[in-house]
Amino acid sequence: MTTPDDAQSPNAATRAKAALRRDPWDLPDISGLVVGVLGGTGDQGRGLAYRLARAGQKVIIGSRAEERARTAAEELGLGIEGAENAECARRSDVVIVAVPWEGHAKTLQALREPLAGKLVIDCVNPLGFDKKGAYALKPEEGSAAEQAAALLPESRVTAAFHHLSAVLLQDPEVEEIDTDVMVLGESRADTDLVQALAARIPGMRGVFAGRLRNAHQVESLVANLISVNRRYKSHAGVRLTDV
After folding, report:
1. DSSP class of residue 101?
2. Mean pLDDT, to the nearest integer, of 135-142?
3. Of the N and C termini of the chain, which has fewer Cβ atoms inside 10 Å?
4. Contact in structure between 226 and 232 (CB atoms under 8 Å)
5. Is the pLDDT of residue 18 over 90?
6. For the whole model, what pTM was predicted?
7. Left (φ > 0), alpha (ψ -120 to 50) or beta: where does 226 sit?
8. How far is Cα 180 from Cα 185, in angstroms, rounded to an integer?
């Protein structure tokens, strides 16, 4: 028997259809979230920390060495704090993984507990280099993001911020960074949040680009961008058309 309440409550199929009809650019307000950056003392991590803090986000830099993290935070200013990696993870709502590929697995294995329940954004690019230049590596799990998801089963793992120039991110004279950020993940709520975070940085736009199984080709594209930058002495990014 159907009750009046049942008739008024949308079923799962109706909710799914409503989600599909939702404006993809209707993104959440994430201004109050604390963002942690693991590997925040490296070029990419420092650049992301600087840009997000400059946009008004509360940022904590993480490092294996607390003193190094605090020094980097003081150099960047903007209210950025520095902490040891585990403390950074515990105090953050969203955690960006910007560590070198060589230390990716070891770092995440050690942080499984403090990262539990957190939204994790992996921006690591597995690359190798030889006399011919940069080339993509393929981890056993398929990608760095999928490795993160396997190592952090209690976290919500996404992938984004792969194609950004560390030089532009750290340059205080650059007001806007004209690029798109491809965002991958399993949950629309999570990828919407990451898109909103990318949009905090003037000139950037976060664009949903699929589930984590598609992360390898996104990570690999960085090898091509390195070749572009070397040839044209540029800081190339990615812009998607007709979206």
Report:
1. G
2. 95
3. N
4. no
5. no
6. 0.90
7. alpha
8. 16
Residue 57 burial (CB count, 10 A)? 22
Q: What are phi and psi of 25, to 5 degrees?
A: -100, 5
For residues 95 and 117, the answer to whether their CB atoms sit within 8 Å is no
Which residue shows structure tokens 């921006």?
Answer: 123
Sequence-separated (6 or more) residues with CB below 8 Å from residue 22: none
H-only helix segments in the chain: 4-8, 12-21, 43-54, 66-76, 85-91, 104-110, 144-151, 166-170, 188-199, 215-232
Compute the chain's Rg from CA coordinates.
Answer: 19
76-96 confidence digits (pLDDT tens) = 999 999 999 999 999 999 999
User: Residue 202: CB partners within 8 Å, gap ≥ 6?
Assistant: 55, 175, 176, 177
The stretch 180-200 carries a mean pLDDT of 97
Q: For the stretch 219-235, what's the b/e string if a residue is b when 16 or more beta carbons lie within 10 angstroms of its beta carbon?
A: bbbbbbbbeebeeeeeb
* Per-residue exposure over 81-93, b if at least 16 CB sit within 10 Å of its own CB, e if not: bbbbbbbbbbbbe
* Dist. CA 177–CA 96, nearest whole Å: 19
- Quickly list DSSP for 176-232: ---EEEEEEES-HHHHHHHHHHHHTSTTEEEEE---GGGHHHHHHHHHHHHHHHHHH
What's the rounded Cα separation, in Å, for the pair 81 and 75? 10
